[in-house]
Every structure is written in C-alpha cells, then in structure tokens.
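Continuing the series of single-chain predictions for the mutant panel. This is the parent chain; the variants come on the following pages.
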Amino acid sequence: MIELTRQDAPNGTVITAGVDLWGVSPSRLIEDGADLSALPEAPRIILRSRQTVDDAESSFASWSNAAWERFESLVTDASAALRAARPTAQLLLWPGPGSVLSDGVSTLSFARKHPGIGLIIEPAAWITPAMLRDAEDHLRRFAHALSLCESLEAVAISPVPGLDPAACENLLAPAIERAGAILR
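Parent structure:
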C-alpha cells in the first residue's frame, strides 16, 4: 500500500521510503487548456476529475450525454497533451465526487474504451447520502466490479460515514488485491 503522506511535496511527487512513485497533481482538474508541461518528471501522472454536484439538477447533469461528451473530450485532450509533454508517462485519472465515472458500470465502460489510461478509484466517493444505509453492500459490489477492471491502478481508501475503516478495507479487498491501495 502507498500512503499519500507527502502529497504536498514541493515538486508534487509522492515520496514513500525515498522513492518517487508517481507525479501527482492533486489540485489540478482535467479542464480546458490545462498546462501539463509543468507537471513533474514521473512515470505516472495523476489528474483529478470532479464536478461540483450540489442539487438534483447538477447531479443529473453530471450523468448526461453532454457531460459524457465533455469528459471524453477533456480526457482525449489531456492524454494528447501528456503524450506531447511527457511521452513515456502514463496518464492516471482519479475521478472524484460528481464525475461521470461515479459507479462501477460507467467506470468499466470507460476503461474498455480507453485501455491506455489508468484509473485510481475511490469507491467511498461513489456513496451518496441515500446509499449510506446499505453502504456495505454497495462497497462489496463496487469491489467486485473494480476487480474486473484491467485499467485499475489503485483503490483510494477513504472513510464512509458509519463504517469502520478496517471494514471498508475488507469490503474492498477484491479490488485492492488487483491493484493495491492508497490510504487517504
């Protein structure tokens, strides 16, 4: 497991036991015109993707065809920009709450369409307030879906309200066994 304890390192690189693992851009979102040439030299570059969802309308909009088209366009542009700036680096997407990648089905579909792009998935971010009552069941199903995802590079483990952190990790074990975990 990799623990993101040095996320704020001056060059944006996660450092564990003195080894540079991934270039990290935690504050950068996939957005129009993002300058990827300023990212650190690293074998993997992580880009966050999220959309503010604060009501039913914005929630629906994040799953709309227009949102998917925009997301696909931004990912294509970011991937091309990264290849130009860092030809040997792999692009990893870390979708956050409100992203179009907000469940196992959409994530598996995206991964099949974009096999060269790695994914860091944070299943707890997929849990909405309405899902909390059955959070264990949802996490178990998410873990099963993610265990089938060949693009999965890591599972980000973050707290789910009302669940013991160790229980969350155990529920996500099938996905963690495939790709490893990042503790948040």
